[in-house]
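Task: sequence design from structure.
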């Protein structure tokens, strides 16, 4: 298992049999960092789950191909078309000529604003659809929280690994591979903050109806939960995270940072810049 001593961003680490997370993190002052992960399932028909952010394209591709030969990849599961999930999609499609893109009709339409997705290489997966990936069955599932209407989570019934996409999103003081490295307060506060940040509409939902969606998702009985914006969850932290989800409809929305906050941050930044040194005469 990857430890804090061996954990490095953009270095894949194993989370289950033949299953690897490619970790990245985005500094997000003043709340710490947000994980920006993707996943690779090796298996007999390898699967890329989301394609990383374009800001680290070359490093991400190098990390992915350190786990699997791109010519062996058979499936690319795109959870949704946001840039942090689909940012390297065209590069992955180009380097994985034998892969089929698992996506949705709406995602293809939304991505058409920037590029033309090769429709002949696509297969649509709606909520509840399954894919036979050789040595495992993969299930697409709409998660309880999402920031994009096309979002689908992915459950691997062979390893009981759930890719929860943006559900369980959280900020962390510093990048870590697993939530077990966080204190109980950091875990709780991160879950409650991240959920309201990525899905502010949750405050508008009926708590009972939302709770039934959470329960349905929980009935996948995942033993390992990974996601784009969370360290890996295991053991008792999984039901705890679901309990935090159920609290969200009854919580006030997160209050966004304002221009006054930005002005304050800029003032602090400017005050910390050393004064300009006088230039030598004659320059």
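Answer:
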């Amino acid at each position: 298992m990857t430890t804090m001593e061996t954990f490095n961003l953009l270095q894949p680490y194993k989370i289950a049999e033949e299953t690897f997370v490619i970790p990245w993190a985005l500094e997000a002052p003043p709340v710490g960092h947000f994980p920006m992960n993707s996943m690779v399932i090796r298996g007999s028909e390898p699967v890329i789950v989301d394609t990383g952010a374009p800001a680290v394209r070359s490093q991400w591709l190098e990390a992915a191909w350190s786990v699997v030969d791109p010519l062996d990849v058979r499936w690319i599961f795109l959870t949704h078309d946001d840039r942090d999930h689909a940012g390297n999609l065209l590069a992955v499609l180009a380097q994985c000529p034998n892969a089929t893109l698992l996506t949705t009709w709406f995602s293809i339409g939304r991505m058409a604003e920037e590029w033309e997705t090769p429709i002949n290489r696509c297969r649509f997966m709606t909520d509840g659809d399954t894919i036979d990936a050789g040595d495992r069955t993969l299930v697409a599932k709409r998660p309880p929280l999402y920031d994009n209407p096309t979002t689908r989570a992915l459950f691997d019934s062979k390893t009981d690994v759930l890719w929860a996409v943006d559900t369980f999103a959280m900020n962390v003081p510093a990048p870590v591979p697993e939530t077990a490295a966080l204190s109980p307060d950091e875990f709780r506060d991160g879950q409650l903050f991240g959920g309201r940040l990525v899905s502010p509409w949750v405050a508008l939902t009926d708590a009972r109806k939302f709770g039934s969606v959470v329960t349905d998702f929980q009935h996948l009985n995942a033993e390992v939960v990974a996601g784009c914006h969370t360290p890996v969850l295991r053991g008792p932290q999984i039901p705890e995270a679901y309990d935090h989800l159920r609290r969200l409809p009854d919580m006030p929305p997160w209050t966004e940072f304002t221009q006054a906050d930005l002005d304050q941050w800029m003032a602090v930044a400017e005050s910390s810049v050393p004064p300009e040194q006088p230039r030598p005469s004659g320059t």
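The chain has a mean pLDDT of 94.
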